[in-house]
Amino acid sequence: MANESRPCPCDIGDRFDYGGRGQEVQVEHIKAYVCKPPASTDKAVIVIHDIFGWQLPNTRYMTDMLAANGYIAICPDFFEGREAWKPSDDWSKFDDWLKTRDARKINKEADAVLKYLKEQCGAKRLGVVGFCWGGIAVRHLMMTYPELKAGVSLYGLIKDSDDISNLLNPTFFIFAEKDDFIPLHQVTLLEQKLKKNCKVDFEVKIYPGQTHGFVHRRREDINPQDKPYIEEGRKDMINWLNKHI
């Protein structure tokens, strides 16, 4: 359960042993990891990392997966070169660390990445996915940038006061049934607000028996009972992008 010594769920899960098929590039004031599909395309997806930053092998694995499905995929360093969180860090200092990394204050980085995708990669159809911290960032970007035609927010923490009804384009929300950090009543409230006020296509889906981070932080070979839900979450993410981009 969430408590003062463990205020964030991102220490749950596995760190993949994965090297990546893409390359690191400089995008204005930040670095980014880019992976391109075998065939030329004008479709691109921005991948937003969790608190462990843009170099986490798990996130690069997801980036490469998107590229394998036909997208130019880019995972920028939204922490702008500052230290990502490490599981060995002092969790009692996490809240102070997080205050300097606001997932809703990333417009400067988003502007740079969108410009790079359009001018350097020839991208015309754009989407965004994000995990945990990145899931919060996706919600912000989908209310800010009309050129993002589809968004997938994976287990981004929510508050009862959050109002994300002003989504500009279709957005898919992935949650885990047994996420100790995102109570199901918050997910229900979020869905009620969207049904009442949202003007665009959306979907909220809860995956049975799963815990926080399951789509990108769970190894299906270690947890065979989770494998169908991990695969389903990844497939749903790609299907949503395919449908709307």
UniProtKB/TrEMBL annotation:
Pfam families: DLH. Its main location: cytoplasm. Residues 30-244 form the Dienelactone hydrolase domain. GO terms for cellular component: cytosol. Coiled coil: none annotated. InterPro entries: AB_hydrolase_fold, CMBL, Dienelactn_hydro. Keywords: Cytoplasm, Hydrolase. This is Carboxymethylenebutenolidase homolog. It comes from Fregata magnificens (Magnificent frigatebird).
